[in-house]
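Deliverable D5.2: sample structural annotation.
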Amino acid sequence: MYIIFASYIDLFLLFRNLIYKGKTKDVYSLEQNQVLLKFKDDVTGENGVFDPGANTVGLTIDGAGKSGLKMTQFFFERLAEQGIATHFVSANLDEVSMVVKEATPFGKGLEVICRYRAVGSFLRRYAAYCQEGDALDAFVEVTIKDDERGDPTISDDALELLGILSKADYQELKSLTKKICGIIKTELAKKDLELYDIKLEFGRDKATGDLLLIDEISGGNMRVYKNGSYIAPLDLEKDFLGA
């Protein structure tokens, strides 16, 4: 009886401290400049088709939350070994949740995309100049998080003009993105998996002001292929982690 009562109290506190309900995660406040991310089984896409570049929830996949958390934990721990700062503190697979450092976003939030091949929105925009699968050599572009306007891409000039990100910070973000994605690409290649593109998010540690990689690194925010065929998020986690 006590255990059940305690769980109800914990649940009450969790909902009382709800900060934000996101597309794929809900965010709850904790003490000491930390927050809890509760992963959901919702994934981005349109009309029931998964698309990591979409700004709407397209479908729900049973087990997607835990799968995403397992990959996120793996990559954040691997990046820490390489001396790359992230917001990761700890993960609880049973609760499908992750404790992270609280971070302040740039502007109202930016998404930094690293592209190794022409697919997704890049191909839709520039199909007159490239073919699907063309090599892009770690091309980096930034979009602003704005669902109403379809998360438009933005240049370094516009970021500075609007007071979102200085050009020096942009160059640091771009360089760090290539380094992070190079590590991820190499890890995937060990299992004969090829990274086509990936979407990252960054912010500044609320306590120290340091630049941090935030959000997640999972099948939900990347496109990965094997022998020329796309690998769905849950299948990717199984192939990659051997689950």
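Annotation notes: The CA atoms of residues 172 and 211 lie 9 Å apart. Confidence is low (pLDDT under 50) at residues 1-6.
The annotation will be released with the project's public dataset once the embargo ends.
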